[in-house]
Design goal:
Blueprint lengths: L4 H21 L2 H19 L12 H31 L2 H5 L5 H31 L8 H28 L3 H18 L11 H7 L3 H13 L15 H29 L2 H18 L1
Helix pairs in contact: 1-5, 2-3, 2-5, 3-5, 3-6, 3-7, 3-9, 5-6, 6-9, 6-10, 9-10
């Protein structure tokens, strides 16, 4: 069978993604950051004893389900943009300009890395939660299937979007601040840490525009008892709407990611890279 450029790009991306994943697993500092998120969520869940208003569902279960969605969201829209900006500063995009199919392969590699990290972190959170704080797990094949497709669609919604954001962000020092603030706002208005019905209706409407609200709602439908749906804004899980919104964000992200990464690569040059290194060296000297 004849190999097309797209096939070669996907294969190269998968290989590169495997290499990057092995490097990450050997990086204790990076791994500790992901583990810290799980530990914090478990500690908070251990100290929550109330039920979700109007239900017999523990508030800790709602929080763990919502935090699982936030972990998927965070890896795609905080970790990935930071990673892309840092590698751009090191000249990765400049090297991609001379590599046939470099941008698609690069994007595939990042998707592999982020998906494995995100799924692994969420699996650890749910398993540790079930063992240590009697946290929620899917009950029955239908719930496991819902967990699978919501996680898949959620990652498809945020990973390409994170790549698009990373392509336009400035240097790494500013990138974290620019993505952290809106992400933290979404964390508190999307029903991930407390019932969304406790928020004003206009705030709920703003949250409904973004994928995190629907990711959290979809995961709650998989992890919480069906009676807990009465605490949702619509009084139901709205799974068709969950799928529709996440699919729309996935399409938007893919439409933006590759063109923006190509644009960022075209703008790279040896002189730009040298200038950034010179400024970084000066900043380090001044800081010292």
């Amino acid at each position: 069978m004849r190999k097309t450029p797209m096939t070669n790009g996907v294969r190269a991306g998968l290989q590169r993604g495997g290499i990057e994943l092995r490097h990450l697993l050997r990086n204790g500092k990076e791994m500790s950051g992901h583990l810290t998120n799980v530990v914090v969520a478990l500690l908070v869940a251990a100290y929550i004893s109330d039920d979700v208003p109007g239900t017999r569902t523990p508030m800790s279960d709602l929080m763990l389900a919502g935090f699982a969605a936030y972990l998927l969201f965070q890896v795609g829209l905080i970790n990935l943009p930071q990673m892309l900006v840092a590698e751009r500063e090191e000249g990765a995009l400049l090297r991609l300009r001379a590599t046939p199919g470099g941008i698609p392969a690069y994007l595939v590699a990042k998707c592999v890395l982020i998906v494995v990290v995100a799924v692994g972190t969420v699996a650890l959170l749910l398993a540790a939660g079930a063992l240590l704080v009697d946290g929620p797990l899917p009950h029955g094949p239908g719930a496991w299937l819902t967990l699978l497709w919501v996680t898949t669609l959620g990652l498809l919604a945020v990973v390409p979007l994170g790549a698009a954001v990373g392509a336009v962000l400035p240097n790494p020092r500013e990138a974290l601040a620019l993505v952290m603030l809106p992400t933290m706002v979404l964390l508190f208005i999307s029903g991930t840490v407390f019932p969304i019905t406790s928020l004003p209706v206009p705030v709920q409407q703003v949250a409904a525009v973004f994928p995190l609200k629907w990711m959290a709602q979809g995961l709650r439908s998989a992890l919480l008892p069906d009676a807990a749906r009465t605490a949702e804004a619509a009084g139901s899980w709205e799974l068709p709407m969950v799928a529709l919104v996440l699919a729309a964000w996935a399409v938007l992200g893919f439409l933006l990611a590759v063109p923006l990464l190509r644009r960022a690569a075209r703008r790279e040059s040896g002189s730009r890279l040298s200038e950034r290194h010179r400024k970084a060296a000066q900043s380090g000297a001044l800081a010292g």
